[in-house]
Amino acid sequence: MGKTGTSLRSALHSIIRNQTKLSYDQVWTALKDTDQDPNNANNVILLYTGRSQSKSSNGGGVDDWNREHVWAKSHGDFGTTTGPGTDVHHLRPTDVSVNSTRGNKDFDYGGTQIAEAPGNYTDSDSFEPRNAVKGDVARMIMYMAIRYEGTDGWPNLEMNNSVNNGTAPYHGRMSVLLQWNQMDPPDAFEKRRNQVIYDRWQGNRNPFVDHPEWATAIWG
User: Fold this and answer.
1) Mean pLDDT of the region 209-213
2) Under a CB-based contact definition with an 8 Å cutoff, are residues 202 and 22 in contact?
3) Distance (Å) of CA 210 to CA 4, 143, 178, 205
4) pTM of this structure
């Protein structure tokens, strides 16, 4: 408390870097817990479509759900080995084909609405999630930028204002993500998710779910 800028960033990194690391197989089980439908314990809520779907329908089929890396794993080329590739603070259940449509695009406004996921838009170099999860997406990206500072064998992940980051360890568009953080504050689902990850899976938190105002205190 009372810190801003680089001192706040450093303090948060020191706290959240201490986590239990999961295997990529364990992520399946974790997501069935972290993203459980509050109205149906047999289902998970899919990030981009908002669809409630059976926990057991995970896999690679066209209408199955799979594990979406919100911070695209190619942005820093960290893959799915234990580390940022298995950090459930940015891994979410998504429809297989919608996940494929998002690909590794940066986040921004605009594009054509996705037929299978109304309210989500995409073009050649960016993806815009539905309004109800815009803040969720922003705070997951911000978490990754603070958690992975290049000190533990993984790339130093950073936000920037580009939408053509490719394999560089950057994710954009920062100015838009900061807007989304303010437009869509944490709801009960996102807060529960953060708590479940802390209590039962990784032992660390996304500080921007607890304190969305810290995004502005760090990045302006």
Assistant:
1) 98
2) yes
3) 16, 11, 16, 8
4) 0.98
